[in-house]
């Protein structure tokens, strides 16, 4: 969002000053904002992703590469062919609209070393009026030579209230309670929270919560079944969104997301026990836990879930991993000590 906003500001011939007032200024922490006008041709093209001087670079661009061999490849990382053809060969061209040229490289931390080395010279001496933005969630995966040629801009988590407000304007159908829930689960990222909305995490979390609440008295296999079913439908959505991940990888990611949701349910429980939950949270239930639950139980459960998440990364047998986890969570719900 920031990169595209910056692009709008730079290509718009009539950029405007916004004075932020009241709650907006408080939430964002600034009072003045310079941005593209949002109405001119340049701004409209930026918003639509079709501005001729704005180049969006991403893994799957290999499908538009002139070389058939490159087109056939799975875009597991951001390869040298994509960078050569779509970035390095184009930075030297004159901007079509005359103001500046921008390259936004998504998932830059997935550039392989070969690609990064090819890009070094361009990063070091980009032609005038050229701006290259590397977006990375794990910048430390980039080579030191790449990092040393970039100015690093860190994005801290946004205030939850701000994310909540943005979610409500983007998804008018969300209730206040749902928006608050998604804002928390997004951990300060509008993008992550929005993705969770699209993937219907709230509904999934309610279904999971119903199973978790009756864990002490139900068959543990019911919860395993619930995880497997939810991960199938979620994994399908992941696979549709990114054709380049394998089905196994999509299912693994979906399972990890569900474990994260499970941990979030224990987190909600904990917040309610400690009185941190606000009125907006009150729709979700933590029935069935009994009044005797002490704070260390949900904390231990969250730790145990994190352990299982780590195991899924190590290619353990998924079914066994989930069964062991459920047994421990059920034992905890019954009041036995959680196995370490
Ligand atoms: Zn404009």
Structure write-up:
With 340 residues, the protein is mainly α. It has helices spanning 2-11, 22-28, 41-48, 68-72, 80-88, 113-124, 144-147, 160-170, 176-185, 190-198, 201-213, 220-241, 247-273, 296-313, 318-334; strands spanning 16-19, 32-35, 54-57, 101-105, 130-134. The strands form 2 sheets. The protein has a 3-stranded parallel beta sheet with strand order 3-4-5, sandwiched between helices. The structure holds zinc ion. Zinc ion (ZN) binds next to α3.
Q: Determine the structural class based on helices, strands and strand pairing.
A: mainly alpha
Which hetero compounds are present in the coordinates?
A: zinc ion
- The succession of helices and strands, N to C, reads HEHEHEHHEHEHHHHHHHHH
Q: Please state the overall shape, judged from the principal axes of the Cα atoms.
A: globular
Give the % helix. 40-55%
| Mean pLDDT over the full residue set | 87
Uncertain ranges: 279-292
The biggest beta sheet reads:
3 strands, parallel
Put simply, the count of helices is: 15
> Strand-residue fraction?
5-15%
For the record, give the distance between the C-alpha atoms at the N and C termini, rounded to a whole number.
42 Å
């Amino acid at each position: 969002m920031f990169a595209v906003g910056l692009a709008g500001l730079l290509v718009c011939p009539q950029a405007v000053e916004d004075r932020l007032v009241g709650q907006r200024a408080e939430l964002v922490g600034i009072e003045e904002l310079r941005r593209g006008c949002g109405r001119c041709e340049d701004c409209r093209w930026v918003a639509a992703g079709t501005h001729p001087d704005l180049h969006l670079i991403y893994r799957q661009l290999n499908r538009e590469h002139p070389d058939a061999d490159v087109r056939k490849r799975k875009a597991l990382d951001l390869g040298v062919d994509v960078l050569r053809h779509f970035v390095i060969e184009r930075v030297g061209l004159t901007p079509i609209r005359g103001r500046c040229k921008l390259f936004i490289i998504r998932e830059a931390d997935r550039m392989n070393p070969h690609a990064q080395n090819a890009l070094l010279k361009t990063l070091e001496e980009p032609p005038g009026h050229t701006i290259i933005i590397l977006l990375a969630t794990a910048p430390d995966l980039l080579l030191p030579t790449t990092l040393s040629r970039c100015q690093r801009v860190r994005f801290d988590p946004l205030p939850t209230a701000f994310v909540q407000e943005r979610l409500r304007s983007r998804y008018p159908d969300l209730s206040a309670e749902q928006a608050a829930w998604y804002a928390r689960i997004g951990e300060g990222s509008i993008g992550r929270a929005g993705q969770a909305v699209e993937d219907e995490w709230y509904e999934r979390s309610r279904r999971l919560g119903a199973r978790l609440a009756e864990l002490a008295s139900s068959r543990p296999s019911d919860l395993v079944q619930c995880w497997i079913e939810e991960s199938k439908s979620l994994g399908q959505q992941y696979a549709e969104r990114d054709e380049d991940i394998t089905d196994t990888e999509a299912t693994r990611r979906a399972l990890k997301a569900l474990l994260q949701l499970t941990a979030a349910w224990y987190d909600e429980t904990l917040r309610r026990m400690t009185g941190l939950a606000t009125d907006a949270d009150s729709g979700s239930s933590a029935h069935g836990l009994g009044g005797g639950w002490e704070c260390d139980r949900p904390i231990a459960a969250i730790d145990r879930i994190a352990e299982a998440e780590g195991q899924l990364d190590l290619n353990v047998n998924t079914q066994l991993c989930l069964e062991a986890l459920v047994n421990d969570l059920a034992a905890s719900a019954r009041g036995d000590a959680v196995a370490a």
